[in-house]
Sequence to fold (224 residues):
Amino acid sequence: GAGVSQTPSNKVTEKGKYVELRCDPISGHTALYWYRQSLGQGPEFLIYFQGTGAADDSGLPNDRFFAVRPEGSVSTLKIQRTERGDSAVYLCASSWTTDSPLHFGNGTRLTVT
Amino acid sequence: GENVEQHPSTLSVQEGDSAVIKCTYSDSASNYFPWYKQELGKGPQLIIDIRSNVGEKKDQRIAVTLNKTAKHFSLHITETQPEDSAVYFCAATTGANNLFFGTGTRLTVIP
Fold:
């Protein structure tokens, strides 16, 4: 079946601009996660949703980052006033429940120039 | 929070030989330990996982061992093949899939 889908696969933006990254989880998965992976590093947790609500947003680096999942399926990660340090691969993952294994998408590579 | 250390950072083995990657964790409350394989341009793919009530788990050529007392766990790949070449990440969590990842091991299997 279809896996986790992330769009766009690549995004180049100028410093100070606003970006939105989209994630389509595996159908039926109730839990959805956002991670960020810098070059040569392991993924770092940002936020996760159980259904429509953000159950844990402790990994968001600052208030420029925000994520929504209004209908409990697709999620959007929003970054305001982008900075060069935001450049990374943003990974989305989903799972049946919070106790089930995570399935990752291929990520969105964000480059802030 | 949890701190996961992973070594070696790079590992080269001859095809057919075994590969071992080791991780340590700091939070004794961690109870779930997955291993992911990541190929270039792809997202991490779960290859095996283990929970804290089990000491060892095996799936064909891949096995994971867990020592809760010492707070370390290891990935063992036997009879390595060129397609095993990738970056491998260990991770740990106390629950809810808020995973803390190691820094990765780049495995190269030489034909």
In short: Chain A has no helices and eleven strands. Chain A has a mean pLDDT of 95. The first strand of chain A starts at residue 5 and ends at 7.
